[in-house]
TrEMBL record:
It comes from Chelatococcus asaccharovorans. This is Large ribosomal subunit protein uL6. GO terms for biological process: cytoplasmic translation. Residues 11-82, 91-164 form the Large ribosomal subunit protein uL6 alpha-beta domain. Belongs to the universal ribosomal protein uL6 family. Pfam families: Ribosomal_L6. GO terms for cellular component: cytosolic large ribosomal subunit.
Length: 177
């Protein structure tokens, strides 16, 4: 039994959820999203709640049950509140700036890195060493943040690189003479 899947997803005020076959469409103040629920899982909309149940007791249906419920919950949170990931840049001369639809990163390479900002996302740099990726789609926000972090991941000796704001980097001691 899925402990996550058992809980119904409440639809808050200001958000409208509609069901069209296996497609859940959610509309809110920040935008509109949809998710096509797999056929192994049934979806019901009643009393301002979205209820997800497996159609049968197969392993696949049980696996998709909790995942489908989480996806629907992410849609509702996305259109009502939105998602954001914060990244921090550490290193001498490392910085970021937004110019139009491009994030310019100086990360110690011989050239600057230009990252095209994906549609539906907003990237801001409150400080030159801080990047905030925000949007309504949790998957897109996480993917964009991961791609930015990948340009120069944090290293364990000096801690230089791009890391998530809440990430802890295990530091190592350097060589000894």
């Amino acid at each position: 039994m899925s402990r996550i899947g058992k809980k119904p997803v409440p639809v808050p005020a200001g958000v409208t959820a509609t069901l069209d076959g296996q497609t859940v469409k959610v509309k809110g103040a920040k935008g509109e999203l949809f998710f096509v629920v797999p056929d192994d899982v049934s979806v019901k909309l009643d009393n301002g709640e979205v209820k997800v149940d497996p159609r049968d007791e197969t392993k696949r249906a049980r696996a998709l049950w909790g995942m489908s419920r989480s996806q629907v919950e992410n849609l509702i949170i996305g259109v009502s509140q939105g998602f954001e990931k914060k990244l921090e840049i550490t290193g001498v001369g490392y910085k970021a700036a937004v110019a139009g639809k491009v994030l310019k990163l100086s990360l110690g390479y011989s050239h600057d890195i230009d990252f095209e900002i994906p549609a539906g996302l907003t990237i801001t740099t409150p400080k030159p060493t801080e990047i905030v990726v925000a949007g309504i789609d949790k998957q897109k926000v996480g993917q964009a943040a991961a791609e930015i972090r990948e340009f120069r991941g944090p290293e364990p000796y000096k801690g230089k690189g791009v890391k998530y704001a809440n990430e802890f980097i295990f530091r190592k001691e350097g060589k000894k003479k």
